[in-house]
Amino acid sequence: MKACLSKLQGWLKVKNSINEELKPLFYPKSVAVIGASNNPAKWGFSIFNDLLIKGFKGDLYPVNKNEERISGITCYKSVKDVPRSVDLAVIAVPAQIVPTVMKECVEKGVKTAVIISAGFREAGGGEKLEEEVLRIARQGGIRFVGPNCFGIINPFSNLSTTGLMSLYITPYVPKGSVAVITQSGNLGTFMLKLAFERGFGISKFVSSGNEADLHFEDYLEYMAEDPDTKIIVGYVEELREGRRFSEMAKEITEKKPIVILKAGRTKTGHKAAKAHTGALAGSDDAYGACFKQAGVIRVREIQDLFDVAVTLVSQPLPRGKRVGIVTGGGGFGVVAADMCEELGLEIPQLTQGTLQKLNQRLPPRWSHSNPVDMVGTMEYSYVCIGTLLKDENVDSVLAISSVGSPSKIFDQYPPAIRNQLAEFAEMMVEWESTRGVTGLIERIRKYKKPVILAAPPTSREESEAIGEFEKNGIVVHPTPERAIRILAYVTKYAEDRKRKSA
Amino acid sequence: MKACLSKLQGWLKVKNSINEELKPLFYPKSVAVIGASNNPAKWGFSIFNDLLIKGFKGDLYPVNKNEERISGITCYKSVKDVPRSVDLAVIAVPAQIVPTVMKECVEKGVKTAVIISAGFREAGGGEKLEEEVLRIARQGGIRFVGPNCFGIINPFSNLSTTGLMSLYITPYVPKGSVAVITQSGNLGTFMLKLAFERGFGISKFVSSGNEADLHFEDYLEYMAEDPDTKIIVGYVEELREGRRFSEMAKEITEKKPIVILKAGRTKTGHKAAKAHTGALAGSDDAYGACFKQAGVIRVREIQDLFDVAVTLVSQPLPRGKRVGIVTGGGGFGVVAADMCEELGLEIPQLTQGTLQKLNQRLPPRWSHSNPVDMVGTMEYSYVCIGTLLKDENVDSVLAISSVGSPSKIFDQYPPAIRNQLAEFAEMMVEWESTRGVTGLIERIRKYKKPVILAAPPTSREESEAIGEFEKNGIVVHPTPERAIRILAYVTKYAEDRKRKSA
Question: pTM of the entire structure?
Fold first, then answer.
């Protein structure tokens, strides 16, 4: 008992210290960019400009021994010359110089660092250099991200050290409640692109690189306590502290879901991972067992990470695996039914009450069963979804539309015909109305059941309703198959939690 | 021998006759829309207007006993009143009236019909009505599509009877070489949306509905001989003439690939199919065996249909399953390697010559193996893809990019910074240049190996290169996983063909 308590205290101590130690990393009062440059071919150029563009609110100091000014701002020869204290040093200089730069950081009393520079452990013969940098930083009490990474983003402090990579994405980073920890910078920014284009934001982003000092597990621990983070998604090639991960994750998932894409599943993938980050041991089965035991949601594709995360954050968990399906056409129902069965979801019979209600609204030739084929009467979509949400046999609702709003497409037609079509467009108002969206979101909350939507991607630009859904965190998937895959992940997670708490 | 010859002659006769019989359907000189309407709530409204908008070149006659003019054009009380001969009657009147209308069509000498109207076999008690219509049409020698369908599209004759459904998609239908036969109208138009938004066109489109007269097999036979069709894609719930399909498909796939999504794979899906089109028998295993024997490519998701078709039409078949991979970041390589192994593709070692050539161009820290991680130097993408195409160990190339062109994104930044960034944008010109695209397409032809591309969807609007690729029929997939899935289908098809001809 005593031993257990002391272990707990020890762990709590580490916990506090990580959260203390990483505060100047994610919320620095001052940032020095070492290797800042006026040359657009250099990382230091894009990192410094990105910090400027994103509107970092603290003090920002360019450091470069060959320049007087960078982007019009006074430049310092060494970080030691910076007139005030430095919370975070972003280092983008050639690998060979990093030990010297790190020594200067220690002398300056810098608290944290992000080493963007590559050419360490991942390159042949770079292990020693990396160990030297780690030794200097440890002695000086500096915690650091990387090396060989894209760095970090914190939209809550207007901070981004990812430079060009985030320039490619967007000039601003939407705030959200998803924290991203990635062992691949490129793959991480790809994820952000997929998310940002739909307006889904992040709470934090870390590209962990070689993890010489800070490990995936450290960031995980930080995000667990971060008040802006409600869910944690990760891309993993190798966990350096498997046992620590396993113990922490078990606790964290009680409060915040963790969604992970673990790559290197196969022999070929594992070989590629070894070439990439030098990932070593751990059979895929071992990882699988660890994730399962810790309640981690393991997904198979990059796109799944955010889709699952956003759905878990924005919608209630389904109480079971019985799916009510609403479609504009029967073919969708058949495709959906196949996929549901294959992924362990059920398509229940609807109650007599539901059938009667639908009979009152839909044309006589509707399917009279689940999937509900509205036989082309898209104007009843919200009514049907609402009716299924109420049905006690239904735990979640999947709605598949093949159309967006006609109004914007009609703009492409000659004026004479456009006027004629205006009346038709009126008929579609219910499906397209943002009032409809608001009503549905209210019903999702009232009945505490999730609704998963699919509509083809062209509808995205056409449809105000789709924009409104996604603004409220309700993903509109481009195909029914993708929608069902995400619903299956979410349902499995809900069932696992139910079993655990039973 | 004699028996065999007479069987062949018999079959040839049927073949000729189907192609003769369906000519007035797809290339009518005159079309009557029975049920044409000025009321936007009616199908007859949207069908008639759609024919007008799409610019049908032949004679167009609205028929409606209650109207004098439809959309300003003289309207006839009955098809019998139309002053000239009618090749195609599009019928959009309540089901009960269809037998009468069909009788009038027979009396008029109409050649073919499309029955849009629903309320037949798919609705309880509608079987008799459907049989009556079929009997009348057969006696009068009229072949017809439907009932309960969205009709047909032929962009080569500016003909579309799909009405509103194609209004939703686009005011024009791009011409292409993919024929679509679908047993679900909604799912069919969804497919078209996915295709048209990327500029991929069609040769013909048929929503076959209840198939009272013309069956899936009839359309298949027609498309096999259609000179504008190079590949046939189909959505199937039930084949009414399994043996005929099997015999025909075996011959057709020697010249034109057939790609099919067969739904109703599972018990639940089969039940839903029964509710939808009344699909009856045939275990999924039986369909699977039939497709395999006939060389039909069976896909699992709606989106796969066009992606596979366009790739087969636009690119050479891979000679084997060895994939060369080019990525901007190592994480993509790991994810790709996993998926390749899982789908039966191989990641070969590169030749010494290739490694040497890449050493000359890429920074020293590149991966030095397949997958080729260019460590962020996207400007060498085309060089690397070209080098892998030349490698004798490589049968196809997969390239994964995480960035599009910076130039368009930079427009969002303040002018001061924008000017600074212009120089950086210059550096990316090679990857983004349409010259680069043209060069790559030339190399694909020269080395007779396909190239599969993945880039995140946001790049689509940013990138002129992506537009240029897709204009040339080279699909740019939104995720690496989708790209590999399509490459796996295409590779399996190529291997099957090789085995067959060996």
Answer: 0.89
- B435 shares a domain with B290: no
Of the candidates A30, A173, A49, A12, the residue with the CA atom closest to the CA atom of residue A105: A30
Asked if residue A303 and residue A346 are part of one domain, the reply reads: no
User: Shortest CB distance from B341 goes to which of A269, A365, A421?
Assistant: A269
- At which of B312, B339, B366 does a domain end? B312
From chain B, pick out residues whose CB is under 8 angstroms from the CB of A273. 334
Q: Tell me: do A134 and A216 sit in the same domain.
A: no
The amino acid at B318: P
- The answer to whether the CB atoms of B118 and A457 lie below 8 A apart is no
CB contact under 8 A, B479 and A301: yes
Sort out which chain B residues have CB atoms less than 8 A from A334's CB and list them.
184, 237, 263-264, 269, 272-273, 276
Q: Domain tally for chain B?
A: 2
Pairwise CB contact (< 8 Å): B331 & A479: no
Evaluate whether residue B9 is within a structural domain: no
Residue B121 domain-assigned (yes or no): yes
Over residues B59-85, mean pLDDT: 95
Q: What is the pLDDT of residue B127?
A: 92
Question: What pLDDT, on the 0 to 100 scale, is given for residue A1?
Answer: 46
In chain B, residues with a C-beta closer than 8 Å to the C-beta of A337 are 266, 268-269, 271-272
Range of the domain at A295: 174-313
Give the CATH number for residue B187: 3.40.50.261
Distances (CA, A) of B165 to A237, A428, B155: 46, 13, 15
With cut-offs at 50, 70 and 90, classify the pLDDT of residue B194: confident
CA gap B282, B269 in Å, rounded: 13
What's the CA gap between A428 and B213, in Å, rounded?
33
Q: Are residues A104 and A233 in the same domain?
A: no
CB contact under 8 A, B269 and A334: yes
Q: Can you tell me the ipTM of this complex?
A: 0.88
On whether the CB atoms of residues B294 and B249 are closer than 8 A, the answer is yes
Q: Which residue of B has its CA nearest to A186?
A: B329
Q: Which pair of structure tokens corresponds to residue B471?
A: 């204009």
The answer to whether B303 contacts A53, with C-beta atoms less than 8 Å apart, is: no
Instruction: Give the residue from B312, B335, B361 where a domain finishes.
Output: B312
Contact A186 B376 (CB under 8 A): yes
Through-space distance between the first and last CA atoms of chain B, rounded to whole angstroms:
27
